[in-house]
Predict the structure of Helix-turn-helix domain-containing protein.
Amino acid sequence: MATYQARCIKILDYIDTHLDTDLNIDELCAYAQVSKYHFHRQCSVFFGVSLITLVRLLRLKRAAYQLAYRNDSRIIDIALSSGYDSHEAFSRGFKKHFKQTPSDFRQSPNWEAWQVTYAPILHIRNQIMSDNMDYTVQTVTFPHTPIAVMVHKGAMQRLGITIQKFIAWRKANQLPPNKSQTFNLLYDDPTATPADEFRLGLACSLPRSIDTNDTDVTVDSIPAGLCAKIRHVGSDDTIGLAVNYLYGEWLSQSDFELRDFPLFFERVRFFPEVLESEMITDIYLPIQ
């Protein structure tokens, strides 16, 4: 069983890092050392979906993020990068899985339908990571950092709407990620907070002072101080496991206590600009 699981994990890792290529079944079988006569059935049992569906959903996830958050990307270009030969084929495939055409999704994304479709992959990634947790924790001093914050309040399924608003605000104020660090402030635990009360801060550093007349954006700061840090490489699907590790196993075995500031992320490399496997997020837990 361990060997079978390890091979399936290798397949998922390979797919994650080669989504931009023409994935070949013979190549995948050779890489994972799996017989092609049993390959599809093994993958379907382990992943909960067929291999073809798995690849399609991973590509469509990136397409959904590009549609929602990258308005300068043309739909036909997103279609071609997702493995479709035409706008029409992409539109049919996208609507089949997410109940909206790409154009409709770009105008008004239904993230709830998207999350239901994507649930099998989320489940398997968390299962894999929970069986293979290996985190390196550093203690670092984080500098005082002025930030602009837009607070999302409400169900996680509607977070995408707030992200769109914050991206638009950053563009209007000329604060792109290459000039301003990007942060998330985790005020609440989504597993322990009623959906309508859940809060998460979307933030960016302020390299210069600004006046904001936007009632949704406030000027604040991340205070200087000691933090426990994990560098998380890969999809956000499993980032919650790293957070739980800091609060649980690591903190209980350390001599530190928590400071009065929420755990926060710094987004170093972004999806969909890079593949999910290439995302980098630094997780900071304020301690003393």
Q: What stands out?
A: The first strand starts at residue 138 and ends at 142. The CA atoms of residues 103 and 123 lie 28 Å apart. The domain at 2-130 is CATH 1.10.10.60 (Arc Repressor Mutant, subunit A). The chain has a mean pLDDT of 88.
